[in-house]
Design a protein that fits this description.
- This protein is α/β, with parallel strands linked by helices.
- The chain contains 19 helices and 26 strands.
- A hairpin with a 4-residue loop joins strand 15 and strand 16.
- Helix 13 packs antiparallel against helix 14.
- It is globular, with a radius of gyration of 26 Å.
- The structure holds 5-amino-5-deoxy-1-O-phosphono-D-mannitol.
- 5-amino-5-deoxy-1-O-phosphono-D-mannitol binds next to helix 9 and helix 16.
């Protein structure tokens, strides 16, 4: 969603800020702005639409300076207009502020400020924050860095909601202030320069030494130092971390889009999800990050999985994988529903929240609600510095590297791989024998090669994509663990190509979906050689009987599908708990190539944000 990049140092801030904003483009936004300090004042430039428009605006009317804040806005309060774009200013016009998050009591605060003579020029909740900080600063009298920090503190004490902010004031040159609650903010430490960003990928080309701020922390930064304190006014302990990845990991490299790059990374990312986690000696998986002994794990009699979007689909597939490997009842919940439900849980329920970004607001709220109820709550996250990773009782990292494409790809297959590891671990504590465990390990070890072989189907999938790219409606069907894969295939297609698409368990066809079948509505069936293969064939026949075109994903060596389907994609043979991973890949490629065929902006689909940090 919204993005923040800020700089204080001795270099020209403009290229640093624009480069940082460009690196945050993937998160989704609809306008952008910048505020740069110069002697005696601050210059502001804003533009609706792409960052290129902001850059053009700056070129038309140049600004320069060594201290600045910048922002990409994803509209929540107020339309996509120049006036609503950040930075926003206060009554004096000398303070400028950018903000991620939502100020829930902004209406009340705005009315109170209006009664005190403040005028507003946007519909945003953010403008209220700028006025509050400015008012507190002007009341204080002193015009120094301590006074600005104190003003930020005073303002934030009045606020209900979430924020990651950065503030610059013309009267306090050479200084920025940042603060966070519920919206990520990271401080980058350079040589005689410092950075603030909502996402480390915006600044990793400048420094890998960072401090991830905690909620209720305020940072004051200057070229030669920084100070972190809390909202209550005390000093804060902090830890300097080194970013795991380098700037190259957030580049597209030889690929035209991040999404394609990330699809092609999957042989490595599934390998990284397993790295160091398989023990042939004990014939099990080692997941030390769970922070649970085997006795603790043995006591678990129910598992709840919660996530949003693709992570929720991973949970649904995880339900099948865990139930079949570990024989533990599993339930899946949309994180957004979980937070407001009052589910009667058994005592020994283990909750997992699943999130690539680790910052999804609903998933974070589900985690907090579950922990509040006293359940051990673990995270399956990619972003190791994320709020979910830090607040959970333990968990499993995906180690998939940064995922930039808005459409989740490699994170999904990493999540499924982790569910197999969990199934192996929990199964071995229960009914799986040593040789069962060794078998699963040996199958897992083959997985990266099978994924690589599946990606080689790209040319065939691209040709199929071309054939069906003009369809207005697409159906995806599968049974058992392939039903969630059908949902994921439909989500990928609709997200990036805007074609209406939906996923169903194949058997639901007769219960209503069949009404949609026409000669122009392609149905994609995931029908590998498994226990329900014949059932899928019957469903395919039902579609064909109504002249519906059928694309099938089957198992290498299959000859039955080609006889009745229009197009067949054959994936390598694998055990039932790994087939969902392989079956996902042609669906990702299909969505990618259809979107590309239609000329859609694959990495930055309309209206979408990579990380949904508001409810
Ligand atoms: O970062 P998270 O895994 O928590 O994100 C959850 C969803 O917002 C995300 O999967 C979304 O559905 C993607 N755009 C799917 O491609």
């Amino acid at each position: 969603m919204c993005g923040i990049v800020a700089y204080v140092g001795s270099s020209n801030a403009i290229p640093i800020l624009l480069d940082g904003l460009n690196r945050l483009e993937y998160r989704g936004y609809d306008s952008a702005g910048i505020a740069v300090a110069r002697a005696g004042g601050i210059d502001v430039r804003k533009a609706v639409g792409r960052i290129a428009n902001l850059a053009a605006e700056i070129q038309k009317s140049p600004v320069s300076g060594t201290v600045g804040i910048s922002h990409t806005r994803w509209a929540t309060h107020g339309a996509v207009t120049r006036e609503n774009a950040h930075p926003h200013t206060d009554k004096s016009g000398r303070l400028h502020l950018v903000h991620n998050g939502v100020i829930e009591n902004y209406q009340t605060l705005r009315e109170q400020l209006q009664e005190r003579g403040h005028e507003f020029h946007s519909q945003t909740d953010t403008e209220v924050l700028a006025h509050l900080v400015g008012e507190a600063f002007d009341k204080g009298g002193a015009r120094d860095s301590a006074a600005l920090v104190e003003a930020v503190r005073a303002a934030l004490r009045q606020v209900i909601g979430t924020y990651g902010i950065s503030v610059v004031h013309a009267d306090v040159p050479g200084m920025l202030v940042g603060a966070r609650r519920g919206s990520p903010l990271v401080l980058g430490i350079g040589k005689h320069e410092h950075f603030l960003a909502s996402d480390v990928s915006a600044i990793v080309s400048h420094t890998r030494e960072v401090v991830y701020l905690n909620d209720y922390e305020i940072v004051a930064l200057q070229a030669d130092g920084f100070e972190i304190s809390t909202l209550s006014g005390s000093g804060a302990d902090f830890h300097v971390s080194t970013v795991e990845f380098d700037a190259g990991s957030v580049e597209k490299g030889k690929y035209p889009h991040y999404m394609l790059k990330e699809i092609h990374e999957q042989p490595n990312t599934v390998r990284d999800a397993m790295r160091g986690r398989l023990s042939a000696e004990e014939a099990t998986a080692i997941l030390g990050g769970l922070n649970m002994t085997n006795a603790d794990l043995r006591a678990v009699d129910r598992i709840v999985l919660a996530g949003c979007g693709t992570a929720f689909h991973a949970a649904l597939a995880g339900e099948y994988i865990l139930e079949s490997l570990a024989h533990i009842p599993v339930e899946c919940e949309f994180a957004s529903e979980f937070r407001y439900r009052n589910i009667p849980f058994q005592r020994d329920t283990l909750v997992f929240v699943i999130s690539q970004s680790g910052e999804t607001a609903d998933t974070l709220a589900a985690l907090r609600e579950s922990r509040r109820k006293g359940h051990r709550t673990l995270g399956i996250c990619n972003n190791v510095a994320s709020t979910i990773a830090r607040e959970s009782d333990g968990g499993v990292y995906m180690h998939a590297g940064p995922e930039i494409g808005v459409a989740a790809t490699k994170s999904f297959t990493s999540q499924l791989t982790i569910f197999v590891l969990l199934g192996l671990l929990l199964g071995r504590i229960r009914h799986l024998s040593h040789s069962d465990g060794l078998n699963i390990i040996s199958e897992l070890e083959k997985l990266p090669d099978l994924v690589a072989r599946t990606i080689e189907l790209e040319t065939q999938v691209a040709a199929i994509a071309k054939k069906y790219a003009k369809a207005n409606n697409f159906l995806f069907m599968g049974r058992q663990a392939h039903y969630p894969i059908a949902l994921e295939g439909a989500l990928k297609l609709k997200e990036i190509s805007y074609i209406s698409s939906s996923g169903y368990p194949s058997a639901e066809l007769k219960h209503g979906v069949i009404a949609l079948i026409t000669e122009d509505t392609p149905s994609l069936f995931i029908a590998p050689q498994d226990a329900v293969f014949e059932k899928n064939i019957s469903n395919i026949e039902e579609v064909k009987a109504r002249r519906g075109p059928v694309i099938a994903i089957g198992t290498e060596g299959d000859t039955a599908l080609a006889k009745i389907c229009d197009d067949v994609i054959l994936i390598p043979e694998a055990p039932h708990y790994l087939t969902p991973i392989l079956a996902t890949i042609p669906l990702q490629l299909l969505a990618y190539h259809i979107a590309n065929e239609l000329g859609c902006d694959v990495d930055k689909p309309r209206n979408l944000a990579k990380s949904v940090t508001v409810e």
